[in-house]
């Protein structure tokens, strides 16, 4: 939530910052702003709405050229999405500019104090108090980095702050508590950003800032301390993807590109984790076997799409390991006093690794003595840093707000963890594990096959663009798939969409069925658990008898559904537990196409942001 960029070097700061903001716009697009230090002063511009509005304003009224600058793209929390609330914020003398991601919880009190001392605050934001406090502290010490440390000690809440002062034209200062901030180290230049994507075209050498740290950027280097000024240990790492991974690469949207990348993302997530003998090698987890053997309960915490991955994982974990598994929305978890202890394994699933609800849930779990394993797509993000262990998904950068390839790789990672538990605890034989791994390895190709047959789904989606409601039904692992299909449609097409367990329909929701209402049904394989299959075929008949227009997603060769399907979408036959990996894909394509047909911007749906760093 909110994207931040800072730059000091010898290039045009405005160009570098604007290019960075373009890459970070997925984090929020309520407003955008920049500030540049030039000619002994500070020049800034900010505009409500998308970055394009700011760029237009800058074309009409250019800023003076400077080589130090900061920028911000906003997801509004305090104060509406107006020009006045857009970042950067300034002190009354216009010498300080600051951008912020997060929420300063004690801002009302600080604001009142500042007003008593004669400061005039011009916005409704919590951020503006920081600009004024920095100006006050700077007047005492003439050192922006020290001023930042002093101010941070007074702030409560979550914040990433980046600031410049006209009296220190070659310095950018950043501070981090709970929200992400990464440093990019170049030759004679340095960068700060919420995400490496902002500076990946300039450098792949990055430093992840730790909790409660302040960083000072100068052309010739960076220095990191804690809020008390003590030097901090920093770890420089190499970003293993390049700028092209963060480009649309010829696709109309990032979402389409990311849907298309799923076969590779799935294959990459398996890479290096299967030994030559076909057994699992997950030593990277570094959780001692004794700890895994002692686990008596698994709890998965996650939000949104990642939560749906967790719901599916529960079936696999319980089936393969016989360990009870709970799945909980991270935002609810710690408030209900969950029962956890030294033998609980908590799995925090998060694409961004920054979701505040998930972070708070994992902190709570660790306080209760649980072992926490993160499944994450972002190297070095807060959630993996604060977990006991991490299994990275290798989906590559996911830019579209709606999660697609990350979801599939989260499933793969969860399956790997489940199998590994089974391997370590001896609840699954080696040959059984190898058989599942073989099936998993084949899935990447199956996802590719699904993608090749999506034209009828796109056509169907376009034909339904005038509908108000679409329902989704599933059973067993198909139920969370139905929830995911409904979430995708809600967030992208802004339609009423709901997912139900098909068996639950008769307990109430069937009253929603009316003539020509589109209902998507995810049908379990007729092989294996055929009872489930037979039951869902009955459910399809029940809704069809009441007028529903049935859109049936069923395995190739499943002839039983044919008479009851108004539209039939075929997916490859897979083992039951792995079916979500192929069944979700048509639902992603369906939502993306329907949203596009309604004129919506699929990469940046309204009111949303990719990385949700507020609770
Ligand atoms: C929906 C979507 C969100 C995220 C959720 C968790 O398409 O993307 O529901 O899944 O905000 O985000 P992460 O995985 O970053 O913790």
TrEMBL record:
Enzyme Commission number(s) from the entry: 2.6.1.16
Broad EC category: transferase
One cellular component (GO) term of this entry: cytosol
Pfam families given in the database record: GATase_6, SIS
GO BP annotations, alphabetical order: carbohydrate metabolic process; fructose 6-phosphate metabolic process; protein N-linked glycosylation; UDP-N-acetylglucosamine metabolic process
Domain of life of the native organism: Bacteria
Keywords assigned by UniProt, alphabetized: Aminotransferase, Cytoplasm, Glutamine amidotransferase, Repeat, Transferase
Matches recorded under InterPro entries: GATase_2_dom, GFAT, GFAT_N, GlmS/AgaS_SIS, GlmS/FrlB_SIS, Ntn_hydrolases_N, SIS_dom, SIS_dom_sf
Gene Ontology molecular function, alphabetical: carbohydrate derivative binding; glutamine-fructose-6-phosphate transaminase (isomerizing) activity
Ranges of residues in domain Glutamine amidotransferase type-2: 2-220
Residue intervals of the SIS domain: 287-427, 460-605
Main location: cytoplasm
Subcellular location as annotated: Cytoplasm
HAMAP family: GlmS
Role, per record: Catalyzes the first step in hexosamine metabolism, converting fructose-6P into glucosamine-6P using glutamine as a nitrogen source.
Subunit-structure text: Homodimer.
Designated name of the protein: Glutamine--fructose-6-phosphate aminotransferase [isomerizing]
Species in which this protein is naturally found: Streptomyces antnestii
């Amino acid at each position: 939530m909110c994207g931040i960029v800072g730059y000091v070097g010898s290039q045009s700061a405005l160009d570098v910052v604007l290019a960075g903001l373009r890459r970070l716009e997925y984090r929020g697009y309520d407003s955008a702003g920049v500030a540049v230090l030039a000619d002994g002063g500070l020049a800034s511009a900010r505009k409500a709405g998308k970055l394009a509005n700011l760029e237009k304003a800058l074309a009409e009224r250019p800023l003076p050229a400077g080589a130090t600058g900061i920028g911000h793209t906003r997801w509004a929390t305090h104060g509406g999405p107006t020009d006045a609330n857009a970042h950067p914020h300034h002190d009354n003398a216009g010498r300080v500019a600051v951008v912020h991601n997060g929420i300063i919880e004690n801002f009302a009190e600080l604001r009142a104090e500042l007003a008593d001392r004669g400061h005039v605050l011009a916005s409704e934001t919590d951020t503006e108090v920081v600009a004024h406090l920095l100006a006050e502290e700077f007047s005492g010490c003439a050192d922006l980095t020290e001023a930042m440390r002093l101010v941070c000690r007074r702030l409560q809440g979550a914040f990433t702050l980046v600031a410049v002062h006209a009296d220190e034209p070659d310095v950018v200062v950043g501070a981090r508590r709970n929200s992400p901030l990464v440093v990019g180290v170049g030759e004679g230049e340095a960068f700060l950003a919420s995400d490496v994507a902002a500076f990946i075209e300039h450098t792949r050498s990055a430093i992840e800032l730790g909790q409660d740290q302040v960083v000072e950027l100068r052309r010739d280097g960076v220095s990191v301390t804690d809020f008390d000024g003590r030097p901090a240990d920093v770890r420089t790492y190499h970003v293993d993807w390049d700028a092209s991974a963060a480009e649309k690469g010829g696709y109309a949207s990032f979402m389409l590109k990311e849907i298309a990348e799923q076969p590779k993302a799935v294959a990459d997530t398996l890479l290096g984790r299967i030994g030559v003998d076909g057994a699992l090698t997950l030593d990277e987890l570094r959780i001692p076997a004794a700890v895994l053997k002692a686990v008596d309960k698994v709890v998965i915490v996650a939000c949104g799409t990642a939560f749906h991955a967790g719901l599916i994982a529960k079936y696999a974990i319980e089936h393969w390991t016989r360990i009870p598994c709970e799945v909980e929305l991270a935002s609810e978890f710690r408030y209900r006093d969950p029962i956890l202890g030294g033998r609980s394994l908590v799995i925090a699933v998060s694409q961004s690794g920054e979701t505040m609800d998930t972070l708070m849930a994992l902190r709570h779990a660790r306080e209760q003595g649980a072992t926490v394993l993160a499944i994450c797509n972002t190297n070095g993000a807060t959630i993996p840093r604060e977990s006991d262990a991490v299994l990275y998904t290798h989906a590559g950068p996911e830019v579209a707000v709606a999660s697609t390839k990350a979801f599939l790789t989260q499933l793969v990672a969860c399956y790997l963890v489940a199998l590994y538990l089974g391997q370590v605890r001896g609840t699954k034989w080696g040959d059984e594990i190898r058989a599942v791994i073989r099936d998993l390895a084949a899935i990447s190709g199956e996802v590719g096959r699904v993608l090749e047959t999506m034209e009828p789904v796109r056509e169907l989606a376009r034909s339904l663009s005038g509908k108000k409601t679409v329902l989704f039904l599933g059973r067993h692992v198909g139920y969370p798939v139905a929830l995911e299909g409904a979430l995708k449609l809600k967030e992208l097409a802004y339609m009423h969409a709901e997912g139900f367990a098909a068996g639950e329909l008769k307990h109430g929701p069937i009253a929603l069925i009316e003539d020509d209402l589109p209902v998507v049904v995810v049908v379990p394989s007729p092989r294996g658990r055929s009872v489930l299959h037979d039951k869902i075929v009955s459910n399809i008949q029940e809704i069809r008898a009441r007028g529903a227009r049935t859109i049936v997603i069923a395995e190739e060769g499943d002839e039983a559904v044919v008479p009851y399907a108004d539209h039939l979408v075929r997916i490859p036959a897979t083992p039951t537990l792995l079916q979500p990996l192929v069944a979700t894909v048509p639902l992603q394509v369906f939502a993306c196409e329907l949203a596009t047909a309604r004129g919506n911007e699929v990469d940046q749906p309204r009111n949303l942001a990719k990385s949700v760093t507020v609770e």
